[in-house]
Amino acid sequence: MNNAMERANLWLSEQYDVETRKSVQDLMNQDPAELEDAFYKDLEFGTGGMRGIMGVGTNRINKYTLGAATQGLANYLKLTFPEKEKSVAIAYDVRNNSESFARIVADILTGNDIKVYLFEGFRPTPELSFAVRNLNCDAGIVLTASHNPPEYNGYKVYWNDGGQIVPPQDEAIINEVNNVKASEIQFQGKEDLLQFLGKEMDQAFIQACVNQIGFTQKGKEEIKIVFTSIHGTSIAIIPDALKAAGFTNVHIVEEQAIPNGNFPTVKSPNPEEPAALKMAMDLADEIGADIVIGTDPDADRLGIAVRNFDGKLVLLNGNQTNTVLVDYLLQQRQNDGMDGTEFIGSTIVTSDIFFDLAEYYNVECKVGLTGFKWIADMIRKAEGKQTFIGGGEESFGFMVGDFVRDKDSVTSTLLACEIAANAKANDSSFYEELLHIYCKTQFYKEDLISITKKGKDGAAEISQMMAEFRQNPPKSFDGSKVVRLDDYQISVSKNLSSGEENSIDIPKSNVLIFYTEDGSKIAARPSGTEPKIKFYFSVKTNLDEISDFEIKEDELTAKIERLKIELN
């Protein structure tokens, strides 16, 4: 508690405004436990930037933590581009305080003589990535906490290629941030360096999205789509994008079309959660829709439901959706003629079906850590040498082409709807296309368990769990011997049969992945953006005939349940 109290006492100095000082004093007097959590550490940049609960404190999102981050970024930009006029694009989502935080951030940058392009209202995260590239900015910032609960907000930094910052920029910026004193933050902005972005940028972004997916016009007027923004930013763009792409039979969940940072109609605005899409699925059943699409608050991720052979709506997981999207893109590329430079992108906890698809189409599959900044990094490193087709991660994110360098629900929505329309026009369906892919590769089934451990004690518990896995790794899972262990913290892949060790050429991360003799894959990873530890399960089998799907699925489901029980 002493360290937290020392930090809190600093926030009582006159470097901080009257309202902040009063809030800190109130915590000291009334809520020592909250004071401890608010000040026991500094917010850190994780896989998705800086994200946390809003409030006073070094471990909270507020004008001073955002201010230090932005002043540190400004200092880094000055060092990196000393001779040029610097510019930064800023977007924000619908969350409580996002707009005011965005204005604070904009003022700090203009106060540092950096030109700012600020969106005039909430916009999807992928549009920010597009704007950075479109305007030739040196960096970009999004104020968002993605799908976190309403009390959260966050801050993501993008580099001049439109991708989130990675080494060495991230570490260098963090060093600058850590050296910023509150008194050094330039809160007083310069209006002449501020320019607002509106409809003109929206239209350029929408047209670029449409250009990525215009493979066919078949069935676009017949396919019936239900869309929900779940109170988030995508309502500003996706309906117009669908219309521009030729989809006319679109039905919006009106109750969830109202932007609201409290997300009043859902427990969580996360399209990974079935409950988040319930209203959309109810509407789809009422009108007989073919496909349901819902996006998270900052519109970088999407959830999809489609009809199975019995006509029942089925929620797809991120791996299943991405399998269909990447297969379709590869089919189209194959039809146009491959030139041998193509590659797709994935992550270490995403389904290994991506490797099977890469082998089937004779392209490379590059793999990175969790987080789309690593897929953007692949594209950056391959610029001018290889062609990125598409890529995704299991947590409902996908990217089409490289015009946007972050996961993009807008273009992915258009692509999913095109696939559904084209399949229906050919007497198939999105669901049936997925099963055809399983037949030509293998049938993979995945599941995920997230365990929430909040606060300082929770962080210690998660750390202990990972330490226990390293000290006493399981020898087998479901009766199948563990044959390989990848430890990304020490960058070593160990063959447990031969003892042979190989280095992992991916940045270090606190992730363990176990591979078994029968092809199962079990991963453990503390989240970089939430107080959670996540366990990923992947099992597979051959699927010779679509008619065998239900039997095989039951077998794999039972296997995953046994793995969960074994892990307790």
UniProtKB/TrEMBL annotation:
Kindly give the SUPFAM superfamilies that the UniProt entry links to this protein: Phosphoglucomutase, C-terminal domain (SSF55957), Phosphoglucomutase, first 3 domains (SSF53738)
A Pfam match: PGM_PMM_I
Q: Which GO molecular function terms does the record list? A: magnesium ion binding; phosphopentomutase activity
Q: Which UniProt keywords apply?
A: Isomerase, Magnesium, Metal-binding, Phosphoprotein
Is rRNA processing a UniProt keyword of this protein?
Answer: no
Domain Alpha-D-phosphohexomutase alpha/beta/alpha: from-to ranges:
44-181, 204-305, 317-436
Q: Which cofactor does it need?
A: Mg(2+)
**Keyword Transport in annotation:** no
Which InterPro entries has this protein been placed in?
A: A-D-PHexomutase_a/b/a-I, A-D-PHexomutase_a/b/a-I/II/III, A-D-PHexomutase_a/b/a-II, A-D-PHexomutase_a/b/a-III, A-D-PHexomutase_C_sf, A-D-PHexomutase_CS, Alpha-D-phosphohexomutase_SF
| Alphabetical list of CDD domains matching this protein | PGM2
UniProt GO BP: carbohydrate metabolic process; purine ribonucleoside salvage
- Which family does the similarity line name? Belongs to the phosphohexose mutase family.
Name under which the protein is recorded = Phospho-sugar mutase
